[in-house]
TrEMBL record:
GO terms for MF: beta-phosphoglucomutase activity; hydrolase activity; metal ion binding
Family annotation (PANTHER family): 6-PHOSPHOGLUCONATE PHOSPHATASE (PTHR46193), HEXITOL PHOSPHATASE B (PTHR46193:SF18)
Catalytic activity entry: beta-D-glucose 1-phosphate = beta-D-glucose 6-phosphate
Top-level enzyme category: isomerase
Name under which the protein is recorded: Beta-phosphoglucomutase
Record keywords, A-Z: Carbohydrate metabolism, Hydrolase, Isomerase, Magnesium, Metal-binding, Phosphoprotein
This enzyme's EC code(s): 5.4.2.6
Annotated family: Belongs to the HAD-like hydrolase superfamily. CbbY/CbbZ/Gph/YieH family.
Membrane-crossing segments per the record: none
InterPro entries assigned: B-phosphoglucomutase_hydrolase (IPR010976), Beta-PGM-like (IPR051600), HAD-like_sf (IPR036412), HAD-SF_hydro_IA (IPR006439), HAD_sf (IPR023214), PGP-like_dom2 (IPR023198)
Record's signal peptide: none
Organism for this UniProt entry: Gordonia soli NBRC 108243
Highest taxon listed in the record's lineage: Bacteria
A Pfam family recorded for this sequence: Hydrolase
């Protein structure tokens, strides 16, 4: 398995983040967040500084929806009540779902090749995502056939788990797969998710750089064991 998949010999379970790792929906999320935040900011100040791609990476990417809203608003020194925070998040999700319905979802071809290789090698597969739309995205991308266990934003809320960068969701994924963290590999494109993998002391953490620039360095600094630009780089690595 190690020779085929580029993983330690002790690896028996793969825990994949979804948006940005398996599917191209991270771009859709970023666009929906920008529209939601910019609409909120414009109401407060016509001369507002818009939400940026870097804001998405620094404060929102990989986090549960409410945590992302709170982190971004804190970066702008803006305090709001819970109702306003939830309204921003709900507005973002409505935009995301509208795009999902109109445009669909595409899995990354390299990720599909890796999933096929992993399945053939006997590596067990789970998805761990902060998104509450995990089931819909997996179905739309035709990836459900690979996934044995799914942990998503609905599970995080229902179980009262701390979101990424806390390791709780990944630890739950490993538990549901019946293994300890040392036998599981985390696959993440978000800095918060890589930090979660490192904090949970997982056996291996794969950082996926879909951004370029200094993102690979940041993923490594956050705790990634290896960084790739696409998952199929690990095949026969």
């Amino acid at each position: 398995m190690r020779l085929v998949l580029g993983l330690p010999e002790t690896s028996s379970v793969a825990l994949f983040d979804l948006d940005g790792v398996l599917t191209d929906t991270a771009v859709v999320h970023q666009k929906a967040w920008k529209e939601a935040f910019d609409a909120f900011l414009a109401e407060r100040d016509p001369a507002y500084a818009p939400f940026t791609a870097q804001d998405y990476l620094d404060y929102v990417d990989g986090r549960p929806r409410a945590d992302g809203v709170a982190a971004f608003l804190a970066s702008r020194h803006i305090e709001v009540d819970d109702a306003t925070r939830d309204a921003i998040g709900e507005g973002k999700n409505a935009r995301f779902l509208a795009t999902l319905e109109s445009d669909g979802v595409q899995p990354y071809p390299g990720s599909v090749r890796y999933l096929e290789a992993a399945q053939q090698a006997g590596l067990r597969i789970a998805v761990v995502t902060s998104s509450k739309n995990g089931e819909a995205v997996l179905k739309a991308a035709d990836l459900t056939r690979f996934v044995e266990v799914r942990v998503d934003g609905l599970d995080i809320v229902r179980r009262g788990l701390a979101g990424k960068p806390a390791p709780d969701s990944y630890l739950l994924g490993a538990e549901l797969m019946g293994v300890g963290p040392d036998a599981a590999v985390v696959f993440e494109d978000a800095i918060s998710g890589v930090r979660a993998g490192a904090a949970g002391e997982f056996g291996f953490v794969v950082g996926v750089d879909r951004v370029g620039g200094d993102q690979a360095e940041k993923l490594s600094a956050a705790g990634a064991s290896v960084v790739v630009s696409d998952l199929d780089e690990l095949i026969d690595a």
